[in-house]
Amino acid sequence: MNPEPGEFLSLLTPEEIEAFRAVGRPRRWERGATVMTEGDTSDWVLVLTEGRVKVSSHTSSGTEVVLAVRGPGGLLGEMSAIDGSPRSATVTALEPIAGFVVRDFTAFLQTHGHIAVLLIRLVTGRLRDADRKRIEYGAFDTTGRVATRLLELAERYGEQTASGVRVALPLSQDELAGWTGASREAVSKALRTLRDRGLIETGRRRVVIHDLEGLRKRAR
Fold first, then answer.
1. Chain Cα centroid distance, residue 87
2. 11-53 tens-digit pLDDT
3. pTM tops 0.90
4. Please, are residues 214 and 197 in contact by the beta-carbon 8 Å criterion?
């Protein structure tokens, strides 16, 4: 397993990862499975070792809002495990996933102070990211927000090829719309605009970015 940069396990030493594994139980889920449900109350967390998930919530009208995409090394469910409040979001497997479940997470943190400090840094980073996205929603048009999300996916999952950076897109257009705070129609139009400018090429659940710098300029 290679934790993604910035994800929880990437911050830990090999010894700390083994300590975490020692108190965990391995689990697997198939693509499309619901891993955690918004509103549930539980004290366990999940650390991903394979695959990607989406973290989402639903508005009162039933519209899905995608809050984040997490990959290998990601920590899920830590807020509810710490404060005992109901889950604030639903976690769904975008592809087959594996990880280990740790119960009584707070007891583990009490005996591993350094990991607790790293968790604070992780949560702080997520809060900053949430603030940044709120600013984007007010300052950027839909095409700019779509370009920003594609750049984020390219940085995390991109593979350099002869024709550009290929991203195996884990999200459908509906899910990408939920991640950018726009309608599916607006996202389709934004992708068409980016294609017409020669910045990207799209296919079924994949994107090839031909011009990274041009995409960054459009994102700004």
1. 16
2. 999 999 999 899 999 999 999 999 999 999 888 999 999 999 9
3. no
4. yes
Taking the C-alpha atoms of residue 179 and residue 170, their distance in angstroms, rounded to an integer, is 12
Report, in this order, helix, strand and coil percent for the chain, each rounded to 5: 45, 25, 30
Q: What φ, ψ does residue 26 adopt, rounded to 5°?
A: -70, 140
d(CA 104, CA 207): 40
In single-letter form, the type of residue at position 85 comes to S
> What is the number of residues in the chain?
220
Per-residue pLDDT at 58: 85
Three-state SS string over 122-148 comes to HHHHHHHHHHHHHHHHHHCCHHHHHHH
CA 72 – CA 48 distance, rounded (Å) = 5
What are φ and ψ of residue 203, in 5° steps?
Answer: -145, -170
pLDDT in tens, 133-164: 777 666 678 898 899 889 988 888 888 998 89
In DSSP notation, 35-52 reads: EE-TT-----EEEEEES-
